Amino acid sequence: MTAIHRGRDLAGPSDRGPAWVPRMNLLAPRLPARRMQVAARWTVALAIVALLDLGVVLAWLAVGGLAAAAEQRLARAEARRAAAEAAMAPLLPTVQEKVRLERRRQALEAIGSAPVEAAAVVAAARAALPDGVRLMQLEFAAADGSVRLQGEAPSFASVDAYVAALRQSGFFRQVWVQQVRREGAGADGVAFDLGARAPRAWVPAGEGALGRGDGP
């Protein structure tokens, strides 16, 4: 009886107060999960920031590499230019002389058929005379620069020497032989008739004038 009574006492309500119910916090398991979510979000954000920083650094390095490569190419180009200038330095006087002569030629062509001074033609013709050759007559047409030279020489070889001297003087553009003949039967000398072209350029007026007369 005692055992049964005790079992009933345990099973029934107690006169001492309400029955004890254990307390359970249902929110407790959710708190660690929220913290994990926040931590994961911050981790992702930090990873994104780190990736952006890494991208900026890589871009900066790439720009620096391109700049360095460009500087190297520029330095090589400057070195090649300096080497080319050093190689051309000995040729510069020749090139400059050619340019000067070309400009002078163009200036002379621009002048056209302007008449030259007759004194310059006479002086050039007399300066080329070999020994024993006399210039008896000189005719000069300023319109076209044609020159006719007549005179006497001791031999045919002397006439050839005079023609060569006129050509080598650099004054006349063309020189040719029109006629060479013996003066007469038994004559020792020859008479020559030469043609030439004066340059198309103005020559400063100086000494002498167009005329006829003996050579120097």
Give a brief description:
InterPro entries: PilN. This protein has 216 residues and is an alpha+beta fold.
Tell me what you see in this structure:
There is one protein chain. The chain has 216 residues and is an alpha+beta fold. Among the domains are: 71 residues; 80 residues, 2-Layer Sandwich (Gyrase A, domain 2), CATH 3.30.1360. It is 52% helix and 15% strand. Strand 1 and strand 2 form a beta hairpin. The protein is rod-shaped and about 170 Å long.
Broad shape: rod-shaped
Radius of gyration: 58 Å
**Helix amount:** 40-55%
In total, the number of strands is 4
Largest beta-sheet characterization: 4 strands, antiparallel
Low-pLDDT windows of residues: 1-11, 202-216
Mean pLDDT: 75
Hey, roughly how much beta strand do the residues contain? 15-25%
Name the assembly state: single chain
First-to-last CA distance:
182 Å
**CATH level 4 superfamily of the domain at 118-197:** General secretion pathway protein M, EpsM
Q: What would you say the CATH architecture of the domain at 118-197 is?
A: 2-Layer Sandwich
**Main β-sheet, spatial strand arrangement:** 1-2-4-3
CATH topology of the domain at 118-197: Gyrase A, domain 2
Number of helices: 5
Order of helices and strands: HHHHEEHEE
Helix-strand makeup class: alpha+beta
Can you identify the CATH class of the domain at 118-197?
Alpha Beta
Keywords: Membrane, Transmembrane, Transmembrane helix
Organism: Thermaerobacter composti
Protein name: PilN domain-containing protein
Pfam families: PilN
